[in-house]
Amino acid sequence: MLPITETIKIKIASTLQTLGLPAGEIKLEHPTELVFGDYSSNVAMALAKGAGKNPLELAEVIAHEISKDLEEEIERVEAVKPGFINFHLSKKFFSQSTEIIDNEEEDFGKSKLLKGTKVLIEYTQPNPFKQFHIGHLMSNAVGESLSRVIEFSGAEVVRANYQGDVGLHVAKCIWGILHKDSEYLFDDSHSLEESIKFMGECYVAGNAAYEEDESSKKEIVLINKQVYEESDERVNKIYVIGRKLSLDHFETIYKKLGTKFDYYFFESQTWRAGKALVENHIADGIFEKSDGAIVFAGEKHGLHTRVFINSEGLTTYEAKDLGLCELKIETVKDFDQSIITTAVETKEYFKVVHKAFSLIRPEAKKTVNVSHGFLRLTTGKMSSRLGNVITGESLLTSTEELALEKISNRELDEGDKKTIAEVVAVGAIKYTILRQSPGKDIIFDPEKSISFEGDSGPYLQYSYTRALSVLEKAKTEGIKLSGVTHEESIYDLEKLLYRFPEVVTLSYNELAPSYIVTYLIELASVFNSFYAQNKIIDKENPESGYRLQLTSNFTTVMKNGLHLLGITTLEKM
Fold it and tell me: How many CA atoms lie within 13 A of 352 on its CB side?
């Protein structure tokens, strides 16, 4: 059976041919309100001028012709101002959709759109020796959701994380450790959390020294070279243990966020490859020497010039990113697309890096950047450089505490409350991040984020749990689900459930999980209205089985949708 969208498009095209009108590309969209129908076409408005008619008049002619021979999936077609043609689907179509959702369950919404392709996605990118800040939460939420959407669309997904384990930030932290307590990290009596806090304090001290004291700055510059060259035993020992502690700490956060990476790339691996690429392409003019440094003259390509190797002979971020591109090609072989989640402020930077790489490697065309904005609290954007950072972990912890307080009076054991609070907190933060369209900043309101009503992640989780409880109660009363409906009227819930696969495809096409968020919040609202307006469990009503079936369909779609957002569902809240 053809998808309903194809059925409608074919019907429109054949009608236009009958009327002697040109049939170009036919687009369908959903009307803004469910009452206006299920699909709408603006074809009459596009053709009206050429046909010598006003749009509404032509829409009426087309709708009348289509209505002469309707497929059983279409109930009626109507023309509405200013010239749209709206299609109302039939009860039979929705009953069939209910059956499809029931049969496919966790596979509902999956497609073969990307079957046979391999997609590499790089995201999160926290740096050892620095804190996991809220910007890393942004990248993680977006990258993990895109990974799941792309997997749902049939591709093999390879998750990668690129981390800066060399550079001035490392040297600043090591300088701070050497001056504060060089043996602290080697003391096994300290917990991982205590060691990470200590390293954060040392980084802040090192950064202040670098900016305020010239002799300290020289010491830090020397430590930076020693890290690259592995030339100082004491520095090396601190570096090795500090790097391991940082990476171990990051893994605890990834576990909480539901992320597991296939590959980890590090700047300590990429700088040599990047340096070689730059130096090997001076002769062919891709890079050029300038005041002792080596640069890419971006102005020649409508961009801006950036330094790839500085005057001290050290690789910059730009050269390291070149090396990363090369390492990805060598390590993750034969990928069809490479997606990188980056902060929106790096957009112009990556244009330069990608242009330089495209002149070296044709595979550069496979790379796509997905930008995310900043997550801001009421105090605005914060910086680990200044020490007033709000870490990703602290935001998770504080949100968990708010969630725990919210459910404190519920009849649950303490272990369940803690688990629920953690899942709700992660869901609240991810929802807040993913509801925004790509590249837009977010103001995070902790109280609103954990609300069990309205526009929030917990509202979706709670709606799912509510539906589960209805199904459990039906079991105890011996009422079975049924795909048979006894009413001619169509529930609004039916009009949304079948759309889920379309939303997943749209989310991939636009690389924007926000479409799934928008859909799920509307779906939850419609389900809760359905729950309030209809007696679902009713032994005396033959329609009860079908209402239960719709409730079951709702749990399927909501669970699948939340999975794509990286949000865990709960059986009780």
Answer: 19
pLDDT in tens, 103-131: 999 999 999 999 999 999 999 999 999 98
Name every residue whose Cβ is closer than 8 Å to that of residue 129 and which is 6 or more positions away in sequence. Answer: 165, 169, 170, 173, 174, 199, 203, 242, 243, 246
Q: How far apart are CA 397 and CA 148, in angstroms?
A: 25
Q: 348 and 303 in contact (C-beta within 8 Å)? A: yes
Residue ranges of the chain assigned to CATH 3.30.1360.70: 4-89
CA 500, CA 91: separation in Å to the nearest integer? 18
- At 151 the three-state DSSP class reads helix
* Tokens encoding 254: 């990834």
Task: Tell me if 271 sits within 8 A of 320, measured CB to CB.
Answer: yes
User: Letter for the amino acid at 330?
Assistant: E
Give the chain's length: 573
Residue 104: is it exposed, middle or buried by C-beta count within 10 angstroms (0-12/13-18/19+)? Answer: middle
* Angle, helix 414-434 to helix 134-152, in steps of 10 degrees: 80
DSSP 8-state symbol, 366: G
User: Which run of H or E residues covers position 163?
Assistant: strand 156-163
Q: Spell out the alpha helix ranges (H) of 281-409.
A: 317-331, 347-358, 392-406
**Residue 419: closest CA among 536, 277, 572, 293:** 572
For the residues of 381-407, what is the DSSP string, one character each? ---TTTT---BHHHHHHHHHHHHHHHT
Q: What is the pTM of this model?
A: 0.93
CB within 8 Å of 384: residues ≥ 6 apart: 130, 131, 133, 200, 203, 204
Determine the 3-state secondary structure of 55 from DSSP.
Answer: helix
Instruction: Tell me which CATH code domain 4-89 carries.
Output: 3.30.1360.70
- State how far the Cα of 233 lies from the Cα of 550, in Å rounded to an integer: 67
Domain 392-564 belongs to what topology?
Isoleucyl-tRNA Synthetase; Domain 1 (1.10.730)
Amino acid in position 236: N
| 443-500 pLDDT, tens digit each | 888 888 888 888 999 999 999 999 999 999 999 999 999 999 998 899 999 999 999 9
Q: Which pair of structure tokens corresponds to residue 319?
A: 């050269």
Residues facing 160 on adjacent strands: 122, 263
Contacts of 476 (CB under 8 A, 6+ apart): none
Listed in order, the ranges of the chain carrying CATH 1.10.730.10 are 392-564
Contact 142, 513 (CB under 8 A): yes
* Nearest alpha-carbon partner for 457 in 491, 409, 506, 422: 422
Q: Where is 375: in which H helix or E strand?
A: strand 375-376
Q: Strands 74-80, 84-89: parallel, antiparallel or unpaired by DSSP? A: antiparallel
Cα dihedral across residues 560, 562, 565, 566: positive or negative: negative
